[in-house]
């Protein structure tokens, strides 16, 4: 998954949603983007017979190729060259490339090893982890209820670590890698599509070298065909997400982000039939409680405060 912020369209204004039509279409784009991210496990399940590192390398190659085509069709190469000339941006995007590659690999591995439940827990935890990163690295102040939400998310991880069969490294790795990725991208004024193209281009030489150097069993044509779709399935929800950001408040998009891990949870339980034992259920319950606390606090903070009557 990639969920970076694009510049907000002037139509949305600084204080509120865009017009009704724009807001409605933005909501559709947002729901579609997060729904696609939520059913990603179904796609990668088709590639369970391929080593996760090979799937990752193919995803990098096809994503770079497809994103390059999209940028060409949209005539936006003029925005890419200034990025490449800026050393600071290239360094930050290089760091982002490593983080998103780690995130992609762990997610692909979680599907191949039937740990989609744990990956969904990681993406539930991620927004609350990002709040903590904002406090530590960006000097953002947390309200009391936000502190409580972050503490509950930590308790969810601790519960699974203490009572689960193994340390929940999949959930922790996904939450941390995507959280730090968001932090890196927060420091960049770069469109999400352009940024991901540069990131995949940075990773491309290494991905091609690994594919050439490490032998793998011959793949059937249909498997190669499925792998070739990885660029498309990476770019399409990203473009929808960018369209949603230009039409909706960031807080509205923030509420939509829970669609993805919720669908992953349902796919894991109802389609892949992964066991939901007591320790996992307890961690999910704690995580959902933390999200409820955070969401309620956000909604209350958005309510306009009553204006006191002026004395006569």
- The stretches of 5 or more residues where confidence is low (pLDDT under 50) are 2-17, 307-312
| Overall morphology | globular
- For the termini, the CA-CA separation is 57 Å
Q: List SSEs in N-to-C order.
A: HHHHHHHHHHHHHH
User: Average pLDDT across residues?
Assistant: 86
Strand content: under 5%
Biggest beta-sheet profile:
none
Class from secondary-structure proportions: mainly alpha
Radius of gyration computed on alpha carbons? 20 Å
- Give the beta-strand count: 0
How many structural domains can be distinguished in the coordinates?
1
Count every helix, treating DSSP H or I runs of 4 or more residues as helices: 14
Helix content: over 70%
Notes on the structure:
The chain has 312 residues and is mainly α. The protein has one domain. The chain is built from 14 helices and no strands. Helix 5 runs antiparallel to helix 8, helix 5 (87-112) crosses helix 9 and helix 6 runs antiparallel to helix 13 (259-271). Mean pLDDT is 86; it is low at 2-17 and 307-312.
Characteristic terms for this protein:
312 residues, mainly alpha, disordered C terminus
Describe the SSE topology.
Elements lengths: L19 H19 L1 H6 L6 H22 L3 H9 L1 H26 L3 H23 L5 H20 L5 H18 L5 H22 L7 H8 L1 H18 L2 H7 L2 H13 L6 H25 L10
Helix pairs in contact: 1-11, 1-13, 3-5, 3-9, 3-11, 5-8, 5-9, 6-7, 6-8, 6-13, 6-14, 7-14
Nutshell version of this structure?
It contains 14 helices and no strands. It has helices at 20-38, 40-45, 52-73, 77-85, 87-112, 116-138, 144-163, 169-186, 192-213, 221-228, 230-247, 250-256, 259-271, 278-302.
